[in-house]
# Entry
Amino acid sequence: MESLLNRYRSITVLLLVIFAQLVLIAVQVKNDQDVRMIRVWTVTAVTPVARIVEGLRSGSTGLLRSYVLLRDTNQKNRRLLAELDRLKLENTFLRSELNRADRGQALAVFQSHTPSKTVAATIIGIGAGANSKVVFVDRGTVSGVERGMAVVTPDGIVGKVIAAYPVTSEVLLITDPDFAAGVISQKGQVRGTLKGQGAPTCKVDYVPFEEKVEPGEWFFTSGDDRIFPRGFPVGVVKAVRSAQPFKEILVEPSGFDRGLEDVLILIEGVHQAVPDTPPGNQPVYIAPPPPVPATPPADVQPVPKSGPVGTEADKLRAHYKAIGDAQGHTFGVGLPGSKPPDFNLTPPPAAGPGAAGPGAAGPPAVGPGAGGRGPGQAPPGGSSQR
Amino acid sequence: MTYPGGRILLSSQREGQVSRFRAWVLLAVPLAAILFQIYVPLFFQFLGFLEMPLLVVVYFALMRRSQVSGLLVGALVGLAQDSLSKNPLGMLGIVKTLVGYFAASVGMRLDVDQVFLRLVLAFFFYVFHQFFYWVLVRALLTQQLAFEMQKWLVLGLLNAAVGVSLFHFLDKLRERS
# Structure
């Protein structure tokens, strides 16, 4: 027997195991119950490992993802920085273009309004030399530019042409130490000579110390130098110091206010009057008001000046009053039991436009036998005469 | 490790060399296979076709060349799978018990170290597993499970291909004699 079992040991174990599982299945199916214990064992054995694996996975995935995202962020950051730089450049370019357009427009307006004949020019370079305030413009003798001509902007004078070439000209700016021009103050009509200092400000020389010049006052060209026509703004006084024998007056040039890129060269200068007010405080032109039409437009309905307007009660009151008036009845004077007016009668049409409006728009006129309320029926809004 | 002459069929059961594994391998590898099956398809759905517990059962049964050991491994792994599924306990247990038993029986007579034989056996036992499970479900639970032989054949090939690689990896966990 023992040898038999040993010989068929494997198949015996197989049958036993399968039989046991069949019984297990049979129990579960028949009782419709689960063998919870075995499942709990398995789940208890498997899920902690699964949790650890999930923790490792999520951690590593999070790290990897963060790293990848970080790399992406870095790349994105670089790309955005590059884009920001590009946009900054573009913005600067557009601002420059806008400024240029403004300047161009101002030049065009100035050119069209000034009586002097001008040639627009663009500054294409600056002269060599540390203290030199010289620029080159893209207009030369071909355009009619000659040595000694004045160079201005709508805001003020800029300099003068010191050399004219066929297609370019060399302009000495008013801030150059070698520059000089005759100027006159706006208020006191004090004359002097504008001189450059190699600095952003210029000085007005040869103004006697007894003359009155105050900071904030404007200087205009006097036309005495035969270069700049009279009446072009030069600049505003920044400081005035009393000295012997001449005052020390510092002027901030106004011609450079919008930058120095486009200028006008005065081919034929025309003298103008020095304005009474500073350029910045000149009166603003205000157009006259539009003409008032004599008659109102046809589609505008006139507002009635009289007549009942307001609520529905007002309209109703006016309607009954018209009925009472048509029948010679005065409301509130009759005794109780007296004959009331016939409210079914249509009131006569009002004579004036004011009386016709709301009354006509009130309750429709209803004749006897036309339906609606019959004779003797109480009127809406009240059943007794007051 | 192949037998001299490249023979597939062994002349006797004693000629077959029994592979031994450490206890932790016998415990950890089936657990990892079950974990793989319940966990990996959550993130990689296309890997749901892999029947890793079956491949592990086949491997251990083949390599240990012991029918009792094979059927016990199959029964335990099958029951564990049943515990983690909605099936009544024992459905996959019976199927894998049979797979373990037959795989061990085959392993006692064939040189299961050969790659091609492993491929064929993995394919065969996958199809057998699926077919017998279908039979059990219909017979014991009276459920109508689709008979998808073509799908089983294709998936059997894929599992066999993966199984060969898995067996190669598990070979490294064997104790050296």
Remarks:
- Chain B has one domain: 20-171.
- Helices of chain B lie at 23-43, 52-64, 67-83, 91-107, 115-140, 149-171.
- The two ends of chain B are 12 Å apart (CA to CA).
- Chain B has a mean pLDDT of 86.
